[in-house]
């Protein structure tokens, strides 16, 4: 890649897997690691900066922690997320995480998990890029995914067939042995064709799942229904469970 930023020396890509480029850059004595889908246009590093004007970044108003933007990557619409902490730790270290190796950084781990799921045909947004700014002991991280058009959160959706479909989609994710760390009604998006998408795989894992871990995912989702749209528990939750069960019965 040929970054247009001054003061950047590109070290040649050390690995290219499945068309995904892994790039290492040095900037002001700091090391920056990128994973890039070929769809990400140059200058690639700038695409992780919401202040980069051609991105026309718009803050995502709903659902997140105020660190997500809709961005324009040339003609492609994407979502840029900067990883930020919630809760008490946020006051101390808002966006720095302890370095435990590149594969375990929040953005690379989510990118790699999304990529496996996307390649398997699961309804997750295509991961476009991951960035890690490495300090001595800590790092900052950012992720780009393809934007799901005209998406609304499942919590704002009262159509029974959509809830049945959401159940099917979560069952497929579980059959693929993925555990979602934050399954809630904002992390399931419904598009204009009523297709249900799973987003926010931050801290998700691919591992052999026990029945208890699957049930724990579902009860977290139900807690979120009760909190955000309690009326949906009586009108739609049973359909979610039917959709979920239908996939396991077919297996
Ligand atoms: N690929 C996407 N397409 C459309 N909207 C998205 C997409 N990814 C995230 N969003 C929106 O951004 C919000 C925040 O993103 P998310 O990945 O859930 O991060 P977090 O909840 O940790 O802030 C989501 O609730 C959703 O509204
Ligand atoms: Mg979320």
Structural class: alpha+beta
Q: Poorly predicted ranges (pLDDT <50, ≥5 residues)?
A: 1-16
Task: Tell me about the largest β-sheet.
Answer: 9 strands, antiparallel
The proportion of residues forming helix, as a percent range, comes to 25-40%
What best-fitting shape do the alpha-carbon axes yield? globular
The fraction of residues in strands falls at 25-35%
Question: Please, how many helices?
Answer: 6
Bound molecules: adenosine-5'-diphosphate, magnesium ion
Main attributes of the structure:
251 residues; alpha+beta; Transferase(Phosphotransferase), domain 1; 2 domains; 9-stranded antiparallel sheet; 3-stranded antiparallel sheet; 6 helices; 28% helix; globular; binds adenosine-5'-diphosphate; binds magnesium ion
How would you describe the overall organization of this protein?
The protein has 251 residues and is α+β, with helices and mostly antiparallel strands. It has 2 domains: 8-146; 152-250, Orthogonal Bundle (Transferase(Phosphotransferase), domain 1), CATH 1.10.510.10. Helix content is 28%, strand content 28%. Strands 1, 2, 3, 4, 5, 6, 7, 8 and 9 form a 9-stranded antiparallel β-sheet that branches. Helix 3 (160-175) crosses helix 6. Mean pLDDT is 91; it is low at 1-16. Bound molecules: adenosine-5'-diphosphate and magnesium ion (MG).
